[in-house]
Amino acid sequence: MSQKILIVGAGFAGVWGALGAARVLDGAAVTTSDVEITLISPKPELQIRPRLYENEPQRMAAPLLPLLEAVGVNFLEGTVEAISVHDKTVTVMAANGQQRTLAYDRLLLTSGSKLNRPPIPGLAEHAFSVDRIEDAVVLERHLEALAKLPDSDARNTVAVVGCGFTGIEVATELPGRLRKVFGPDAAIRVVVVGSQPDIGPDLGPNPRPYVSEAFDSLGVEAVLGAGVVSVDVDGVRTASGNCIEASTVIWAGGMRASSLAAQVSSRLDSLGRVEVASDLRVPEAPDVFVAGDVARALCDDDGRYALMSCQHAIVMGQFGGHNVAADLIGVPTLAYRQPFYATCVDLGEWGAIYSEGWDRRIKLTNAEGKARKQIINTQWIYPPAPNRTEALAAGNPQASYG
Known about the structure:
It is a single chain. By secondary structure, this protein is an alpha/beta fold. It has two domains: 3-115 and 256-339, FAD/NAD(P)-binding domain, CATH 3.50.50.60; 123-253, FAD/NAD(P)-binding domain, CATH 3.50.50. The chain is built from nine helices and 26 strands. The chain has helices spanning 12-27, 65-71, 123-126, 133-145, 165-182, 208-218, 310-329, 366-380, 388-394, and strands at 3-8, 35-41, 45-47, 61-63, 74-77, 79-84, 89-93, 99-103, 106-109, 113-115, 127-128, 157-161, 189-194, 220-224, 228-232, 235-238, 243-245, 248-251, 255-257, 274-275, 281-282, 285-290, 295-296, 342-346, 352-356, 361-364. It has a six-stranded mixed beta sheet with strand order 5-2-1-9-22-21, covered by helices on one side. A five-stranded parallel beta sheet has the order 11-18-12-13-14. The protein has a three-stranded antiparallel beta sheet with strand order 6-7-8, with no helix packed on it. Strand 13 (189-194), helix 6 (208-218) and strand 14 (220-224) form a beta-alpha-beta unit. Helix 1 (12-27) packs parallel to helix 7 (310-329) and helix 1 (12-27) packs across helix 9 (388-394). 48% of the residues are buried. Keywords: FAD, Flavoprotein, Oxidoreductase. This is NAD(P)/FAD-dependent oxidoreductase.
C-alpha cells in the first residue's frame, strides 16, 4: 500500500507545496505507487487573490488540473472540515454533501487566511469585500448597477474601511472604475476609513509620502484615527461620531488564519497562525507541516517573521512541500529562509511604488512602479506552465524568487 501525503488548500502555498513535494519524490525516483500526493481544495483552481481589487475579478483564477497531472499529484475536490493529528486523518466534505475520511502519513496544511469580519453592527449585511473571487464579483456587479440609480452624493461615494495594503489598493483603483460606471465627468468620492492615525500603518515612513501623493492626485480622502462602529444602507459611522454617507462600503479590515490551524496546534499567535519549527514542522504533531498564511515562521536570521502575502506563501510552500516529502522518505529537511523582501503597492492611475528590504527602500515609483506591479500580478505569482520539467523546477525551495 502506498504512503499518503495530503496537502490541504490550493492557495499559493498549497500549489507550490505540491510542486515541491513532487520534485523531491521525482529526484529520489519514488513512484506514485509508493507515495501518493493529494491536494484537497473546493475547486481545482488558484485564485489570484492579490488581483481581486481589479476589474473583471472572474478572470483571476488559474486552472490547476493540467499542472497537477503533469507532476503526478492527485486532486480531490472538497472542503476539509476536521483534522485529527492523533488518528492522522482529515475529514472532507464534498460539494454533493458526502463526507469521507482520509488517512495520511504526512500532512501539509496550507489552508490560508480569511478576511477578519468582527461583529460590527451591519457589517455582514451591508459591506462588500474582495476576499475571494466570489466576493469581488458581487462587488463589481453592485458597482455596475449603481448607474441605474438616481444621481446622488451617496450613490457616487464609496467608503473603504481599512487603511492597510488592501484598503489602499482598492481605494486607488476605484476612481478609474467608477468613472467607467458613471462617466468621466461624474462627481466621485472615495473615502478610506481607518482606526490608525496614519495611512498604511505597516508600510513605514518611506512609501507613505508616495501614497499620500497618489491619494491627492486621485482625489481619495482619508478619515483616520477612529474605527467604524456600524454599517448600514446609508454608509458608515465611526467611533468619533463621523458619519459618511455611501451607497457602497468595502471592508478591508485585515486577515486571520484558517480555523484549521487550531486543530493541529495549540500554539497560535494573535492572527491564529501556527508556531512552527524552522523546517515548518508542528512541534506538537511531527507528521504535520504548515506553510503560507497559516504559519508563523521565521524567514531570516534577524528574527523577522513571514507575512500573510503571496510572496512569502510561494516560497514557504516550496519549503513545506520539500520537507513533507523529504521527511516521509528519510531525506533531511530544510530550514525555511527567505531573506529577500520586496513590497509593490498598486496606486491606481497614479502608478505604483516598488521598494526592497524591510525598511522599504524605494526603488520604483509612478509608471515604472506600475510596470513592475503588472509583471508581478500577471507573471510572477502565476503557477508555471503544465510542463513537467518546468513545474518541478518551480518547486525548488532553493531557487531564487524575485
